Amino acid sequence: MPLMPTLTRANALFLDFDGTLTDIAAQPHAVLVPAGLAPTLSALHRLLGGALAIVTGRREVDIDGFLDPLVLPMASEHGAQYRFADGSRPAVDPPELAPVLQAAQQLVDQHPELLVEVKRASVALHFRQAPHLGPQCYQALELAMVGLQGLELLSGKCVYEVKPAGIHKGQAISAFMRQAPFAGRTPVFVGDDVTDEAGFASVMALGGLAIKVGEGPTNAQYRCMTPAALRGWLSASRTALEHARPS
CB of 198 within 8 A of CB of 212? Predict the structure, then answer.
């Protein structure tokens, strides 16, 4: 793969969070945010004229807590909820998830090393502490979805998530690209997981750039091996933009 691209003031930057900006932790709440990350993102947001957004499977409140006091444009829960630059906050209606939550909780009761994460519009079942239980988690959620409408089962890194069908990060990025100040720019999306491939496809279809963090197959044109290296690229991009002449 080629070297990392050069970020310019003509870009719109979209960033996943876990495994991209930060290292993946044993539990979702245990993520450690490096001290310099929020200032770097704040500066890039300013230098890009506001065209920087977080695109994540996380809840909005989680990301805001990690980046406090920084508040950025965001597509949370894979694009089930938005916070656009103009302050508007469209969101899909939460689907019927009670049977899914019940099945996930029953499995956790049997295997405490599992973790249920309840979001506004989805339920995620994490098995990072028990990878051997992955097939059992999948089967339990798939069975719980029988008879429910408008849902799909998403696979991520040691997590399965039941979410609204048709909601994905590619759709989220496309939505941002129709809004100021993102419209008319060349998009760049950075992600680490299979759930980010839809985002990669979206930016490439728009003539933009896709960056995969970590190992594994991908359709992205660029690769950055670790979140630490990605943070280094962001910091270097900030310095370069601060010294570049405004176009």
Answer: no
Cα-based distances in Å from 161 to 85, 121, 156, 158, 198: 28, 10, 8, 10, 16
Residues 192-209 pLDDT 10s: 999 999 999 999 999 999
Catalytic residue among 16, 18, 192, 193: 16
- Helix H, strand E, coil C: the string for 190-215 is EECCHHHHHHHHHHHHCCCEEEEECC
**Pair of tokens at residue 155:** 């696979």
Q: Is 139 helix (H, G, I), strand (E, B) or coil?
A: helix
Q: Are 223 and 229 in contact (CB under 8 A)?
A: no
Which stretches does DSSP call E strand in the chain?
A: 11-15, 52-55, 74-76, 81-83, 115-118, 123-126, 151-156, 159-164, 186-191, 209-213, 222-224
C-beta of residue 95 within 8 angstroms of C-beta of residue 164: yes
Establish whether 16 is a catalytic residue. yes
Q: What is the pLDDT of residue 30?
A: 87
Q: Distance (Å, rounded) from C-alpha 129 to C-alpha 21?
A: 22
Give the up-direction half-sphere exposure of residue 25: CA atoms within 13 A in the CB hemisphere.
Answer: 11
